[in-house]
Design a protein that fits this description.
Layout: H1 2-24, H2 39-42, E1 52-62, E2 67-72, E3 75-80, E4 97-103, E5 106-111, H3 122-125
């Protein structure tokens, strides 16, 4: 009987080691739901075009084709003109100095220097209200 007890004790000891080892292992975690990525996050917006200014003298002007070539301090540049900007070519002549607001070769606006419509002339700056001299105060009694 002593032998049977030692065999049972050894079996119980072995079983406790196996059970203890299994208890330390973590059960596999349930699979995480797939992350829903919003369409707004995935779609990347195109970078805004960098707007630049170029000042120069008109060398070639073709209003019908919508092209404009300027010669400036940084060399010669050719610009393509579309839509409403084409209307700005009216009244321009070869030799005129202009400022072109552009992105790459696409002209966004064309203006002559000093042709700011928001600037008032000296006549418009004068106020229609005239300032009168000081009003005499009542004499002290």
């Amino acid at each position: 009987m002593g032998r049977l007890l030692s065999v049972l004790a050894a079996a119980a000891f072995a079983l406790s080691i196996v059970v203890g080892g299994c208890a330390k292992e973590k059960a596999p975690s349930p699979p995480e739901p797939a992350k829903k990525e919003s369409a707004a996050v995935e779609t990347k917006t195109a970078p805004k075009p960098h707007v630049k200014l170029f000042t120069g003298t008109i060398e070639v002007l073709d209003a019908a084709a919508g092209t404009l070539t300027l010669k400036g301090p940084r060399g010669e540049r050719r610009f393509q003109v579309h839509g409403e900007v084409k209307e700005q070519l009216d009244g321009l002549e070869i030799g005129d100095k202009v400022i072109v607001k552009h992105t790459d070769e696409m002209a966004l606006s064309i203006v002559k220097p000093g042709a700011n419509k928001n600037v008032q002339t000296s006549e418009e700056k004068e106020s229609p209200v005239k300032v009168l001299g000081s009003v005499p105060q009542a004499e002290k009694k």
